[in-house]
Amino acid sequence: MIGFLKGRVIDWHSEGLIVDVGGVGYELQCSANTLDECGLGEDVALHVHTHVREDAISLFGFSTALEKRLFLSLTKVNGVGPKLAVKALSAGPLSRLVEMIEAGDVKGLSGLPKVGKKTAEQIILTLKGKLVMDEAERSHGGAGARSLGTRGEIISALVNLGFRLPDVEKAVEEMPAETDLQTGIRQGLQALTGQF
Asked: What angle, 0 to 180 degrees and rounded to 10, lies between the N-to-C axes of helices 65-75 and 82-89?
């Protein structure tokens, strides 16, 4: 299963992109939030979900760990598949989606692409009270914030240095939201190696 990719964007369209990783092109379906963070020819670091069916293997890419968590939560809802989850995530800031679910806003959720009233009610029934965003994620509105893009770069750098992704994410989550790339890497190394 592919959980993370770092490479260069070699093709970009309205529903996804292709990332060249060591000469292999991976096609990923992405939300509008993630696509806004990824330009053609740019180096990117994406969290990935590998979706396996009998007739296909699909990759879904996310610019932040938060967006991937919300995507996975949505796909656990009866009647919500991965493509519908990506459409829902594309409708605006992730914090707004979480707020609608927590407020039980059926009308607001029904206004999302491909989400009808019954599906909106099912999303609220399944997920209300179970979604958690930390203060940094709330204040920056989820994906689309440049500081969270920096977090992704910090995570990518530390993973490339040989540290395990879950350990890296835990260390980075404890950093202030405004941490820059160099400071983040230095603090991450200190946390992960136990040096202070």
From this structure: 130
